[in-house]
Structure formats: structure tokens, C-alpha cells
Amino acid sequence: MHFQIISRSDEISSELQRKMIERLTGAGMTLNEESPELVISIGGDGTLLSAFHKYQHRLKETCFVGVHTGHLGFYADWNPEETDELIDLIIEQDFEVIEYPLVKTKVMCADETHEFLSLNESTLKMPRGTTLVIDVSLRKGLFERFRGDGICMSTPSGSTAYNKSLGGAIIHPSFRAMQMTEIASLNNRVFRTVGSPMVFPDTHFVRISTTTELPHAVAIDHLHFEIGSIEQIEYRVAKESIRFARFRPFPFWQRVRESFISN
User: Looking at the 3D structure of the chain, how many domains does it have?
Assistant: First the structure.
């Protein structure tokens, strides 16, 4: 098996990376940065997000597994003290493949189109605190004119991230869906929005029409862009999925409990 390790590069993570490379290559596996079959993330959720974006062009060929050495490891199944057990299971190649849905964001500008995949969420705002004014269409019909700080379109696994802090629902990743949550919408007797998170199946798309040619702030997970002359933005549940190597049962709701409730 060909593998690659993405580390947060702190002392603990770097030592675990060195140990895993030594043992896995000693067992006949190949360290391969270009085309790994298994990507091991050592750090927090940010480390795994970085690994996902680095290898998103190989989602059909590559699986991911996380070792948690960061502050929050929602995507990580393993703790540092369990590394020897994980190494043994990787060498035995005894794992189940679990797929989580992604969100595809298509940004259509006057002269070019940008496409992105998100593992957690895709957000749209105006730079420097300007009010965002957009028309929101569901499938092909206008739904509302939104005014506020922005919108967040999250994946089911990403529903526990920024979406949760905005008051959105937590969605089990077995649902191929996406969720739109408002960020500080303006609601008064003049301006109205639905004022509630909305969940869409993979048969639907959401299309945003902008009302200004000024640059908009587009965030794809931890990546931030300012894009000008946007005409429309389309959100869909992506055809692609991220594949996790699951070496032992780790139910989603147990993951939620351990991340947000357990001490």
C-alpha cells in the first residue's frame, strides 16, 4: 500500500509521523506523496481539511484516517496513545471504507468560472463588514432576497462546525444533503428572510444571484478568496465523496457526544 502522512508539525505530531513512517515502511509499505492510497492526518480537524484539499483530485483512489493531537478532532478516530494499534491495522489492511458527502460550489463570474469542493462548509460574505445583498433561488424559482452578514452552506459532517455555531441543525452524514444557514440576517417590517436553516437533498440546487460587481468573500473550509464580478453562485451536493478508512466502529453520534458533551 502507498501512504502519505500530513502532520500539524508540532513536537508530538512530528514524533508520531516519524514513528509511523518508520514502522509502515519497515513493513513493506511505500511512502508516496504524489499518489497515496491512504492519507494519515496527524493533528486536528484543520490538518485533515488541509489533507483533503491537497488530495481532492484523488477522492476515488484515496482514503483518509485521522490521529487527534489538536484541540478538536471531530474527523480523527485515533488518539496518540493508540498509534501502535492503528499501525498494526494499517499493515493488516483491515478497514472499512465510509463515505461522507461534500458540497460543490460553482462561482460564475463575468469572464470565468471557479469550482470548489467543501468538506465542512462554503460561506459567502462581503469583505470588510459590508452587508451582503443577494437573491436566493431554489432550483429555478426565486425564494427570497437576503440581506445580512452572509450565508453558510454546510455538508452533513460540517454541520457540527461553523453551521452549529450559527444555530444550524446537526445532520447525520448518511444523508446526501446540504444545509443553508443564515449569518446575521436583517429581519424587520421592511426586510424579511425565512430566518431558519434549510436542508436540501442531493436532487436540489441553490443558486445565488449577486446585486453588485464588488468583490465577495468566498470561504471554502479554511481557504479564503475575494472574487469580483460574480454573477451567480450555485451550490449542490457534490457527486464526489470523501472516503474514510474506518478501522473500528466509531458511530457518528458518539463522535458528536465526545466532541461537544463529554469532558
Answer: 2
Q: Which of 10, 45, 135, 221 is catalytic?
A: 45
Is 45 among the residues known to form the active site? yes
At 72 the pLDDT is 67
Is 32 flagged in the annotation as binding?
A: no
Amino acid identity for residue 130 in this structure:
T
What's the domain range around 146? Answer: 102-239
Report pLDDT digits (tens) over 161-174: 999 999 999 999 99
Contacts of residue 48, Cβ cutoff 8 Å, sequence gap at least 6:
6, 41, 64, 66, 75, 76, 119
Buried residues in 157-190 as b, exposed as e (16+ CB within 10 A): bbbbbbbbebebeebebeebbbbbbbbebbeeee
Residues 172 and 73 in one domain: no
Are 131 and 18 found together in one domain? no
Query: Could you tell me the pTM of the whole model?
Result: 0.94
Residue type at 15?
E
Q: Is 45 annotated as a binding residue?
A: yes
184 is in an annotated binding site: yes
- Taking only the tens place, the pLDDT of each residue in 29-76 is 999 999 999 999 999 999 999 999 999 999 999 999 999 997 767 899
**What is the CA 212 to chain-centroid distance, rounded?**
28
